[in-house]
Amino acid sequence: MLRGNIELWLATLTCILIGAGYGLVAFWTREIPAASEFFGHTLGIIGFILMLLTETLYSLRKRIRSASFGRMSTWLKFHIYMGLVGPFMVLLHSAWKFNGLAGATTLLTAIIVISGFIGRYIFTRIPRTMDGLEIEGTLSQEALKRARQLMSLWHAVHIPIGIALFISAFVHLGGALYYATFLK
Ligand code: HEM
Ligand code: HEM
After folding, report:
1. What single-letter DSSP state applies at residue 77?
2. Which of 79, 105, 152 to mutate to test the pocket of ligand 2 (most atoms within 8 A of CB)?
3. Which atom of ligand 1 lies closest to the CA of 47?
4. CA distances from residue 90 to 48, 139, 158 in whole angstroms, order as listed
5. Ligand 2 atom 33: the closest Cα is on which residue?
6. Worst-scoring range by mean pLDDT, 38-47, 133-142, 171-180?
7. What is the 73 CA–ligand 2 centroid distance (Å)?
8. Distance 161 CA to ligand 1 centre (A)
9. How far apart are CA 86 and CA 11, in angstroms?
10. Is the model's pTM score more than 0.85?
């Protein structure tokens, strides 16, 4: 489970393509795309939707017993792909200004991505079936116990960061839409 790095390569490729599109727009218009104008706004909205899907889909598949569509390993790869591409788009949306609440939301986004990489590292230490169930594998009992403890500690940190991130993102988008879009 999660062996190979296909999702990381695909995410890198997608980010390069989006980055190239961003570069072209910046070159064409001779300015950094503003967060409140069409291109920058679109990046923010699509990036945010991807982040919302990252936050919800994998957890739903994991928890709803009757939802057996697709392997857990595929859903986690999808989680990681969207969890990288979404934050990258949101970063481009920021127009490289990080004031106030929007800046704090960007910081929380960066923290959750870094935390994701740490989680991915611990996760891959635990032997699993393709459907994500842990198996008694090559690790000694002691090492397995330690990896499980680390993983639950990681969840205890990662999940509240995600919740804080989405609360501040919703306040930001409410405020930004009200002041920068509707009051224009
Ligand atoms: C997690 C998702 C998001 C993050 C991290 C984020 C981050 C940012 C940042 C850093 C800025 C620049 C603030 C500044 O001028 O210093 C900004 C501006 C803006 N964002 Fe977002 N954003 C997100 C999602 C969205 C969404 C979904 C929308 C719209 C539906 C949106 C609408 C705007 C608008 C309109 C501005 C311009 C505000 C202005 O010009 O005063 N953002 N955002
Ligand atoms: C927008 C960015 C992200 C958000 C909002 C997010 C959110 C979450 C949430 C809420 C969970 C808990 C799932 C559950 O147990 O129900 C989770 C688990 C996980 N995430 Fe992310 N994540 C993001 C990005 C990433 C990235 C970039 C990676 C890897 C590079 C990653 C790797 C993981 C791993 C390995 C797990 C543990 C899976 C498990 O224990 O079953 N995440 N993430």
Report:
1. H
2. 79
3. 2
4. 7, 39, 19
5. 116
6. 133-142
7. 12
8. 19
9. 10
10. yes
Q: What is the mean pLDDT of the chain?
A: 90
Amino acid at position 41, single letter: H
Structure tokens at 134: 């842990």
Two structure tokens written together for 15? 């980010």
Q: Give domain limits for the chain.
A: 6-182
Q: Which two three-digit tokens encode residue 171?
A: 């306040």
The mean pLDDT value for 28-40 works out to: 94
Whether the Cβ atoms of residue 77 and residue 98 lie closer than 8 Å to each other: no
In angstroms, the Cα distances linking 168 to 18, 42, 106 are: 25, 19, 10
Residues with CB under 6 A from ligand 2: 51, 54-55, 58-59, 62, 76, 79-80, 83-84, 86-87, 112-113, 116-117, 119-120, 123, 158-159, 162
Find, among 1, 9, 8, the residue nearest to 125 by Cα.
1
